[in-house]
Request: fold
Amino acid sequence: FVNKILQRGKRSTAERIMYDALDLVQEKTGDDPVAVLKRAVDNVRPQLEVRSRRVGGATYQVPVEVRPRRATTLAIRWMVGFSRD
Reply:
């Protein structure tokens, strides 16, 4: 997770941001912050995505299931991306 937060190779800054966020979750909820983070990733994880499929001269958007590892990667990427905005 820290690697997704990392910008310009500043690992110590990314780690500080991550641990501060986990401490904040601990203060606000009183629950285990790692469990809260896992639950958040599970809630954001996509089940389907659309892939382009060319049939004849037309291109169709076909829904396909997302593999578990890709779903987790997308969820983490989305969470980090939207938290930066």
Notes: The helical segments are 2-5, 11-29, 33-44, 68-84. The CA atoms of residues 22 and 37 lie 8 Å apart. The radius of gyration is 17 Å. The chain has one domain: 2-84.
